[in-house]
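Async update (no meeting this week)

Hi team, since we skipped the sync, here's where things stand on the single-chain job. The sequence we agreed to prioritize is pasted below, unchanged from the tracker. I ran it this morning and attached the output directly underneath so nobody has to dig for it. Comments welcome in thread, and please keep replies under the output.
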Amino acid sequence: MTLEEKITFYSREDAAEFQKYLKEKDCSARISVEHTFSGTPYFEGTIAAFDALITKLLAKEEDSDLAQIKTDLENREKTLAEFFSAHKEGDVLADATPAQLLAQLESIDANGNDDIQKTATEKFVNSLMILGTLEDNELLKIEGETPEYTLIGVKDPKELRVMYAYTDLGGIAPEDLEGTGITSHIRTSSTTGYVVTTGAEIVLAQGIDDLGDFLDHLDVDDDEAGRFVDAIFFKQALVAKIHDLVSGGIATEAGLLEAFEAPAFPLGVTEDVISFDLSAEYLAGVVNDLRKQGFLKGRDGKIKSC
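Output:
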């Protein structure tokens, strides 16, 4: 149906909780599972190999993007060297897990000191880089539900393998890679989303002013939640305007479509306005949904308010 709306959650439990919320508001909702599978191509090689390649390329021609990657490589090598100098094989990294560092970062954010926040953010990013690099090089054992991170080996940072997306090194030609030991690595991944599809009646529902607040407490992407709430609001405004136009004497879809060509309409009792750019097919779908909901009636192409 044209007026139905979809929102995707990270977990089935949160999708079910939102479905329950909607049903309590007399809105139908169904849950479906959506899988996606995608891949991203990377160049993979040692820090030393990338550094030698980029140094060679920069000697031929200046390139700000490659210069930035060279700086990143140098920072990685320095950060990893500092880490290995302070740790040995068998160490449990009790104070450097992502969850602990994120908790520290959030605590520091609450204090509002910009310099402290910047330092904490840099530490958080560096720690994630270290853990990721160790895991990619099979130097890290991760166990337990918490989980626990154990260092199972040490290595010269220059010999650690790292990856850069193809897009980061777009100017590199195949011949540049010959003899470097740098290869392609395509990382694929699957994601599962739990999609709640609402019925058209959600745009006519009463008592959903707390919709945004309710979604704030569920495991859903902020942008996705914002898009969903906005979509419901926009459709509510459209339905309200259709009601006004039909009540004012417009009795056909063609008449509605012509009326919606106006530059803008007042939005409630405020000075704000809203405009509608609608196709004939979309408007027909909306009118059909509103008929099914008992909001409009009429036969032979005629439209009336109920």
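Quick observations from my side:
The chain has a mean pLDDT of 90.
The chain is about 45% helix and 20% strand.
Reply here if anything looks off.
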